[in-house]
Amino acid sequence: DQQVKQNSPSLSVQEGRISILNCDYTNSMFDYFLWYKKYPAEGPTFLISISSIKDKNEDGRFTVFLNKSAKHLSLHIVPSQPGDSAVYFCAARGGNSGNTPLVFGKGTRLSVIA
Amino acid sequence: GAVVSQHPSRVICKSGTSVKIECRSLDFQATTMFWYRQFPKQSLMLMATSNEGSKATYEQGVEKDKFLINHASLTLSTLTVTSAHPEDSSFYICSARDPLSNQPQHFGDGTRLSIL
Q1: Shortest CA distance to A93 belongs to which of A31, A38, A42?
Q2: Which of A104, A108, A109 to mutate to test the interface with B (most CBs of B within 10 A)?
Q3: Which of B31, B107, B112 sits opposite A44 (nearest CB)?
Q4: Under 8 Å between Cβ of B71 and B21
Q5: Which of A44, A14, A40, A48 is nearest to A104 (CA)?
Q6: Mean pLDDT, chain A, as a whole number?
Q7: Which distant-in-sequence residues (6+ apart) come within 8 Å of B108 by Cβ?
Q8: A105 and which of A6, A44, B59, B103 could share a cystine (Cβ 3.0–4.6 Å)?
Q9: Distance in angstroms (rounded) separating the CA atoms of residues A63 and B70
Q10: Where are the beta strands (DSSP E) in chain A?
Q11: Which residue from A minimizes the CA distance to B3?
Q12: Radius of gyration from C-alpha coordinates of chain B
């Protein structure tokens, strides 16, 4: 049973436009959410995170929005750049310990077209 | 630069071979490391939690005698796939977190295991 779902396996966006990647979760105990970016043959790289006490976190071109009532989060990238092309994984964890394992979605492959 | 180093990056071997994968934390000590496995077009699935100086905690459905985990030091955890078979072919990846920082888990670059 997937506790973290990324229902769009792929997304294509024109360079300069906004990319919106979506993620839904089912476990109400999750209180910390992360987005990782992954290039082929490399491990995931941390991008941005959000705690459940917030509804928005922004870092440069990347903004994560959290809607707890809908159990939904999204990652906005604006403006999108060709170098953003990668697989993006949504991850979640519950509990206060940073050593709690992460639960991942299946990922969304973003292609930014020049 | 990488804060978690994983080696080897790729292994191709015959069925029945045992394969050891190393995961090292660089510049920090990790009492806990995680081992994940990813099949094509699937999410990263947690296999086990590696605890320094004690037994690993395995997720349901993961055979502890098949996937041996040793976390003998604060900077090294190893995963040994014993008597590997073609169905064990997958992408194995480890992660660790510096407990003294607010940084999230960092991942190694993964090991692509192909059993012929």
Answers
A1: A31
A2: A104
A3: B107
A4: no
A5: A44
A6: 93
A7: A43, B2, B4, B5, B6, B23, B93, B94, B95
A8: A6
A9: 39
A10: 4-5, 10-14, 19-25, 30-38, 45-51, 56-59, 62-67, 72-77, 86-94, 103-104, 108-113
A11: A45
A12: 13
Asked if A98's CB is within 8 angstroms of B110's CB, the reply is: no
Averaged pLDDT for residues B65-72: 93
Please name which of B68, B76, B86, B82 lies closest in space to residue B14, comparing C-alpha atoms.
Answer: B86
pLDDT tens column, A24-50: 999 999 999 999 999 987 889 999 999
Residue carrying structure tokens 């020049």 = A114
> Which tokens belong to A34?
């992360």
Q: Are A43 and B110 in contact (CB < 8 Å)? A: yes
Alpha-carbon distances, residue A4 vs A34, A93, B23, B27, B114 (angstroms): 11, 10, 26, 31, 28
pLDDT for the residue numbered B2: 58
**Angstrom distance (rounded) from CA A23 to CA A12:** 17
Structure tokens at B10: 């790729």
Rg (CA), chain A: 13
> Which residue blocks in chain B are alpha helix, DSSP H?
none
- Phi–psi pair at B96, nearest 5 degrees: -150, 160
Closest partner residue to A106 among B41, B104, B105, by Cβ? B41
- Greater pLDDT, B93 or A94: B93
The pLDDT score that the predictor gives to residue A98 is 62
Which pair of structure tokens corresponds to residue B108? 């190694």
